[in-house]
Amino acid sequence: MRAGHGDEERWEFGSAEFCQFAGELGVKLISKANLDLSKYEWGFSATYTHTPDRLLAGRVEASWHFMISGGKVSGGAGVPDECRALPGFQLVAPWAAIAHASSLVYGKEGVRKRIADEAVFRAELAELDASVKEPQKPPEAAEKKAPRCVACKSPDHEYTDCRVWPPGIGEALSVDAEHGGGLHNIEAKHIKPSAELAGLPMSKWGFPLVSKMTDEQKVRFLKLLGDIPAAIAGPYGQPRLAVRS
To answer: pLDDT tens digit string along 176-225?
Structure first.
């Protein structure tokens, strides 16, 4: 794990320049994989809620996408309705929660530890916010189904039938991820720090450490976070099973 430094041009997370770069990067990685695009109707989108106004710079939201439809791949800043209508994967996350974590480079082990850190962050946030009740766990099912799909962990289908991460897509987006390649890591190398998060305690894998914040920092961070219940709910990445009508 390391912060994304080097000679690469860098922008703040969620800025218009970063969102355009991220969407175009998805297109580049998919194109480079030489997939038979006629076999896919799929889309990916990322939306960062409560992004600071100065970074929005007049936009309605900070978001980006890339998608495969009609045998062609396209992408860029914003999320068009055409992308939202496709099966795939969507990330909706509070800007303040993931801005720092998104600037760190890591492989498979780092992914697992980032997920664990995100869970700790949400638990600490729930404890801090007295207005949010501890979420109730659903009753244990009589028989818990084991995941069958190695990509989306669904118990209902095999990887070959996955519409969230169809075969070939995940591989194209994670080439050389253990050595700094892949969609996330390349993005991370192009992110520079934002002043709003300066001085806040962070976990090793980039999530805010609410329990380590001073009272002043907690007030500042909660204001920056925006919708606290949504930040607690998680996980931020979700399958999108919508189908084009």
So the answer is: 999 999 999 999 999 999 999 999 999 999 999 999 999 999 999 999 99
My answer on whether omega of the bond before 147 falls inside 30° of 0, hence cis, is: no
Structural domain that includes position 175: 2-131+141-240
Nearest in space to 27 (alpha carbons), one of 164, 236, 188, 169:
169
Amino acid found at 12: E
Domain count for the chain, please give it: 1
Rounded to whole angstroms, the Cα distance separating 17 from 58 reads: 13
**In this structure, is residue 204 part of a structural domain?**
yes
- Within-domain flag for 218: yes
245, part of any domain = no
Partners of 91 in beta bridges: 46, 237
Query: Model-level pTM?
Result: 0.87
Strands (E), the chain: 2-3, 11-12, 42-49, 62-69, 72-77, 88-94, 104-105, 191-192, 237-240
**CB burial of residue 71 (10 Å; 0-12, 13-18, 19+):** exposed
125 domain-assigned: yes
